[in-house]
Amino acid sequence: MNKVEDNDALRPEYRREDFPHGLERGKYAAAMAEGSNIVRLDPDVARAFPNSQAVNDALRALLRIAERAAPEARS
Q1: Which candidate, 21, 29, 33, 59, has a CA 20 to 30 Å from the CA of 75?
Q2: Average pLDDT, the chain
Q3: CA gap 57, 51 in Å, rounded
Q4: What is the tens place of the pLDDT at every residue in 57-75?
Q5: Are 53 and 44 in contact (CB under 8 A)?
C-alpha cells in the first residue's frame, strides 16, 4: 500500500513565493459585492428588528403602503 502525501495541510505560515501568480488584496471584492444581496443595517435600525423575517415583513408592509399611495400621487 502506498503512502499518500497530504499536500492540502495548512502550514503555520506562508511566504510570498508560495503564490507564484502574486497577491492582490480585494481581488474578488467587486465580484462578490455585485453578486450579493446582503444589506448592512445601521445599529439603531438593527435594534428595531429581531431577525431578517421582521425586516422583510416591515419592508413588504412599506411596499404595500407605497403602492396604495402611488395612484394618489399621480392625481
Answers
A1: 59
A2: 84
A3: 10
A4: 999 999 999 999 987 665 5
A5: no
Segment 44-48 long-range contacts (CB within 8 Å, at least 24 positions apart)? none
Mean pLDDT of 7-35: 83
SS3 string, the chain, reads: CCCCCCCCCCCCCCCHHHCCCCCCCCCCHHHHHHCCCCCCCCHHHHCCCCCHHHHHHHHHHHHHHHHHHHHHHHC
| Distance, CA of 57 to CA of 64 (rounded, Å) | 11
Where do the structural domains in the chain lie, given as residue ranges?
41-75
